[in-house]
Amino acid sequence: MCCVRGWLGVAEIPTPLMAPRPVTTVPDFSALVSHWLRIDGVGRVMALSPALAAGDAGVCLEVGEPFARSLTPASQLLWATHHWPALKLRGSLLEAVLDMVTTADGKAGNPADTALVGSSRRWPVSSSWQREQSDGSASFLGMLTMGMERRRLLEELQRTRNSLNAMPGALLQIEARPDATLHFPYASNSLLDLLGITPAQAERAPQRLLDTLSVESREHLSAVVADADSAGADRWLAVLTPRRQPKRRLELVARRSLPDMTWHGVLTDVSRREQLQMDLRLQAETDPLTSLPNRSALMSLLRQRLDGQQHFAVLFMDCDRFKQVNDSLGHDAGDKLLRLMARRLRHGLRPADDLVTLASAANLTAPLHVAARLGGDEFVVVADDLADVEALAAMADRLVHLMARPYRVHGMELVASVSVGVVLAQSGDTAEQVLRNADTAMYEAKRRNRGHWVLFEPDMHVRAVAALAMESDLRTGLRAQQLRAVFQPIIEIASGRVVGMEALARWHHPHQGEVSPAVFIPVAESSGLIAELGEAVLTSACQQFAAWREQGLPVPARLSVNLSRAQLTNPDLPERIHKLLESLGLPCGVLQLEITESLAMADDRVDQVLAALRGLGVQLALDDFGTGHSSLASLQQLPVQQVKIDRAFVRDIETSVYHRALVEAVVKVARALKLEVVAEGVETIAQARLLAELGCPRAQGWLYARAMEADAIPAFLQGKVARVLEEQPPGAAALVLANRGHQVIVTDAHGLTVHVNAAFTQNTGYTLTDIRGRKPGSVLQGTGTDPRAVRKLSDAVRTGAGCMGVEILNYRKDGTTFHSLVDIEPVHDDSGAIVQFVSVQTEISDFKRIQQELLDLRLRVGEARAGLSGAVEAI
Ligand code: C2E
Ligand code: CA
Ligand code: CA
């Protein structure tokens, strides 16, 4: 009983009986117990206490009657089969619980203690019996206690025990004896379960409980309890290990119970909790899609490394065409691609490079490469052992090549090259700075050339900020109509006829002046402004083209406009274009939209828009063919009518057999598919000739004309500017404008510039825009120029006589000077009137330099000679 004392906080249960001593006469128990009786050797009532005799409890007991008769049938059975034989055998019986029959109106204490049995009630009693010896014949003295109270307590005790045992907590009561040994008055079943022993074992040998613990744990527990007792502490905690499972950790938290000063503890298996915590941490730090560490894991890794002053590199990579995959093939395909990329990253790095290593290595000292996913299509690799830039470069190269290999997604082969920004962490950096720098370098890599890597340099930030500023300026610029279209003619090589023109966007920035589309188009694309920009250019180009037609200018049959992806995925585009062309009175066939191959990659939405455009009769051209991952097969798959061979191939056509072969192949395939071919970026006559030989009929490039402002186009179209370049028919006004070695300026009859060639711009830095409508001398002549030469040139124009070989000192835009020989030749119309002057300038700076050196040499030789003759004379 004492084992629950204190634990339950229940008052002490009175021990009911003292053993009655044998008597021969009826003793007076009334002072002690009010309900007693004596029965003889066969169980008949011999005597009753006054209270019972008075029918106090309402029980029907009568002297001479069998005692059993006063019991309920169930108790009679129990009495006959159990208690009575036991009493006779042992001579005593303790706490036999019996139900006595009592009259319904009996005075058996609290009516709540009684229960109805048929027409009568039952009175539960606890009876204790003792044999008496008198005159050799046996009699038994029985004492009845008002059973209900006691029974309730017993039942409550049992209930509490049951519920304690049913509780999931592993509860333990601990008592430190004066000899410092530990005793365990109570241990719940769950505790025993935890320690791997059964309640029966524990009951048999309570110390078994201690034996389940390791030796160290036992000592530790004793010490903790002793310390707590001596310090008067009211709680303690001990971490224990079972003897047989040294990896398990059990945490025992105990509090002192004041009434009896024993300890009550709860034992928890924290190994599970610790595992769970570990799992949770892993979960919180893992990207669910790829199972790579996520941003938060990456940040803590970076911090750890920076705190440890470790040298490491961060490689930040972003997939170049992920958005396209997502948009065109759906998110499932996008997810699949990301998983494949992650897997490749993981396998491409060394084996130790996974999450488990990352999560468990609290102190990462061993070199390690870890890949993490930041979100979207951004991945980061943290690499430790890249001591120098060479090793870093090798790693970055490896990464770029590794990721550029094709993936198979939903039965399709996809190439998802990455652009990588690389940064070497510097001591003093924060994790955020390191990551931001790597990100900046990645953007730079994208800007320069997709599918490459770039090492971070501090001034990249300045540029990144500038790009942001540009985005904001571009937004304003669009509203303020700072954007306009310029036009570059497309020429039939054989005849020099203008067969088309491409509209190209130009932006006049209020402070920076003209900004190249190579700069602002990517900004517009990344900021989402491209759709608005594209539409503005498209509209203004079409309006301009319609205006020229109305003016009766000999406009070509086709106007080409570049289209961006954002426009192509807009299902409204065909309808808008239709309305625009209709409102301008332009037939749909006039418009040709230039798309790049990557734009036209399989995508339902794009396919639909392209089909609708084709349905309208709008022409489509495949731009920049030969860059990226172009394939000849795609020419057949895409609904285009024209293919434009990229400038890069034309540039090297004279020197590279490969490029020539490719141009030839494109031309052949295009011809077979009945597609038009245009070569872009034609700058020299040699290139034009070679293209014509290879069967390419059309060309666009500086050889013929740069992109021109709208107001320069009428003159160009009316043939006022010579543009047929191949052969010079005798007597014709046509002239070779672009000859690499010479700079050519064409002026009108008044000597005001209408055209300059590429060589002119290349050498002087001045573009047509700079000089159009001005006298060439206004930009080329400076303080050092000989006024006599200047006069000769102006006379050549003023008199219309032209000139030959006038030597003049010219100035470049950057202030440096060069010498040239100038020929000016007037061009006459059929009536003989001068319509323009063509000025060809041949740079003679080298010649002048050599001339000067020769002069110097002569001078020195002369001096030396003079010195020598002087010496000879002296001798
Ligand atoms: P693109 O569509 O390939 O346009 C041809 C580019 O090559 C133009 O550069 C043009 O000025 C240049 N070019 C023409 N002939 C020669 C030549 O003989 N030699 C050299 N070195 N270059 C030549 P631009 O105008 O700077 O445009 C660059 C790119 O910007 C365009 O390349 C196009 O992709 C994009 N772009 C321009 N305007 C628009 C537009 O309105 N919308 C969209 N979406 N993109 C545009
Ligand atoms: Ca184009
Ligand atoms: Ca192009």
Describe this structure in words.
This protein is α+β, with helices and mostly antiparallel strands and 875 residues long. It has an eight-stranded mixed barrel with strand order 19-20-22-23-24-25-26-27, surrounded by five helices. Strands 1, 2, 3, 4, 5 and 6 form a six-stranded antiparallel β-sheet that branches. Helix 10 (322-329) packs antiparallel against helix 11 (331-348) and helix 15 (459-479) packs across helix 16. The chain is elongated, with a radius of gyration of 53 Å. The structure holds ligand C2E and calcium ion (2 copies). One calcium ion binds next to loops.
Question: What are the main properties of this structure?
Answer:
875 residues; alpha+beta; 8-stranded mixed β-barrel; 6-stranded antiparallel beta sheet; binds ligand C2E; binds calcium ion
